[in-house]
Design a protein that fits this description.
It is a single chain. By secondary structure, the protein is an alpha/beta fold. It has a single domain, classed as Rossmann fold, CATH 3.40.50.720. Helix content is 41%, strand content 14%. A 7-stranded parallel beta sheet has the order 3-2-1-4-5-6-7, sandwiched between helices. Helix 2 links the parallel strand 2 and strand 3. Helix 3 packs parallel to helix 4 and helix 7 crosses helix 8. It is globular.
Amino acid sequence: MVAINPNGKLRGKVALVTGASRGIGEAIAVRFAMEGAKVVVSARTAAEGDSKLPGTLAATVERIRAAGGEAVAIKADLSDEADRARLVKEAVEIYGDIDILVNDAAVTFFIPVETFPKKRFDLMMEVQVWAPFHLSQLVLPAMRQKKSGAIINISSGAGIHPKQPYNRRGGGTVYGMCKAALERFTTGLASEVYDDNVSINVVSPGLVDTPGVAVHGLINAATKDRVQPIKYIAEAVYQLAIGDPKTMTGRIDYAADFLKQINVEPSELVGA
């Protein structure tokens, strides 16, 4: 039977997870709480009615607390610099310095390059590239001072260069640009903070059945066999968060392959 372990490997640790009102972010927050972490969950969707998609921060927190874990929600718009600073400030005021940061929040538009509006391009870059960069800047001083910490960025196979034969479908170029930039940021930062015992890694989920994926119609007859259970992504992120920062950093890992490599089966998630 799956349960919260208050004395787990993340006991005493504070984790901040963005994009945690649903889907991958929610699952990661739950997995951390299962190992005793104090979890701060953030997104724009705090309560019912804030979004057309299912899932809220309130529901994520309730799921964790109902199982005996500890979590708090802080609503924030990651496209806004002041809101990002407020998010970290309030999280630290509630629980203390951030030990683990997971950058999962995203806003995505699938539009061909020829007609892609600058306003939406800027928004995607702000949320998917600059926000993880800025949040990392905000939490790193405490991590470096303590000589301990982990940052995990959630990427996508879209960051890999397309190969021929091309499908000509179009629309994913900007998304791929964002993820490629996020991955290069990850490896670069990993090298910068290596001596500070802080790990910086990427988990690429593959195709996961989440509300965000559903709204873009990415699961269909041609792709349904590639769908990966969400527990794989949550487990991969957790394993990287507890990994040795000297040997497990600067990685770009695909969840299922990574777990197979380290011979770990994903845990079921409480409240699923």
